[in-house]
Amino acid sequence: MASHANSMHKLIKLPATGSSSSYGVTAWDQQGETHVCQIFVSYTAANLRSRISARINGLQFQYVKGNHSFTYSDMSNVFGQLSGTRFHAVKLDYPREYLTCVTIYGNATGIALKTNLGKTHGPFGNVGDPTACFCLGDENQFGGFHGAADSWGICSYPA
């Protein structure tokens, strides 16, 4: 198992990708939240008849705190709303499994997640051409998420 990111490495905040029109949108920052054990994704599927576009409605993260026991896990705030017509709970086999790649589509309207165990979760929401692909290699370098409703990025602890 690869060693986990620690405070000896400097955190790098990779830029958020998506729309640059975040005026008046509340930004969020989960920087330093490295022990992700679950990601909750609320999204809406496309419906051509009612002209609804596929999109991510909200994200929420669960992190392991303290002595790495699920007894001490914390939930992040909900980023967006868990109001989509579809919902997925992406559960990682923590601490054995961790994020190695996050792909973002459109103006943060779709997301796919890949882990060190070769599992791909998603894509969820609107998936066209990816606007960003944050691939971190085989070691656990994930350092948290940040962004706003229409732009997302990640943080990394380089190995």
From TrEMBL:
<keyword id="KW-0430">Lectin</keyword>
<dbReference type="InterPro" id="IPR001229">
    <property type="entry name" value="Jacalin-like_lectin_dom"/>
</dbReference>
<protein>
    <recommendedName>
        <fullName>Jacalin-type lectin domain-containing protein</fullName>
    </recommendedName>
</protein>
<dbReference type="GO" id="GO:0030246">
    <property type="term" value="F:carbohydrate binding"/>
</dbReference>
<feature type="domain" description="Jacalin-type lectin">
    <location>
        <begin position="11"/>
        <end position="159"/>
    </location>
</feature>
<dbReference type="Pfam" id="PF01419">
    <property type="entry name" value="Jacalin"/>
</dbReference>
<dbReference type="InterPro" id="IPR036404">
    <property type="entry name" value="Jacalin-like_lectin_dom_sf"/>
</dbReference>
<comment type="similarity">
    <text>Belongs to the jacalin lectin family.</text>
</comment>
